[in-house]
Amino acid sequence: MQLDKEDIKSYQQRTFFDAPPKNEVNPISIFLAVLAAILVAWFIRAAYIEWQVRQALEIFNQQMQIINAQSQQQMRNIQLRNEAMREKTEERIRLQAEELRQQKLAAQQIDFEKRAAIENKINERSKKEEAWAESYKPARGCEKDNPDRDALICGNDYAKARRHFEATWSTDIQ
């Protein structure tokens, strides 16, 4: 049996494509293997960096939570101090207002007592003058309507009666 040219050609083409791989190192294979190794290393490095960033971010978030908690505590302490200072200030103002009110009341009381003392003296003088007017009777000839009265005798009589009245008035009061 003889093979025709087309069969031989077809056999050769098939054998060319179905040829067993040679043990030769192909540069494209090396390039692809190196490229794959580089990509695998790059992905591993990227994953490691991402893991480190996540760890750092987690630690950062924990630190921020601690700082926020401390800040909130400090704000509460500041608010409590401010509240205490405000209350002390209000109490001081209230005490000052109360002291001022007490001083005004004391001043009013003193003023009232002074006025009462003045009124008392005025009333006492009025009573004294009324008592004098009731008790003093001019001597005969020393009446107000007498135009011929002797001024020296009447003046002496008035002074003597007044001294006697003053002496008896001060003992009557005590």
Please tell me about this protein's structure.
- The protein has a domain at 138-174.
- The chain is mostly helical and 174 residues long.
- It is built from 3 helices and no strands.
Shape: rod-shaped
Number of H- or I-type helical stretches: 3
List the uncertain runs: none
Using DSSP, what is the number of strands?
0
Strand content: under 5%
Radius of gyration, in angstroms, nearest whole number: 65 Å
Note the topology.
Elements: H1 5-17, H2 27-135, H3 151-173
Write a concise keyword list for the protein shown above:
mainly alpha, rod-shaped, 174 residues
Briefly say what this structure is.
The protein is mostly helical and 174 residues long.
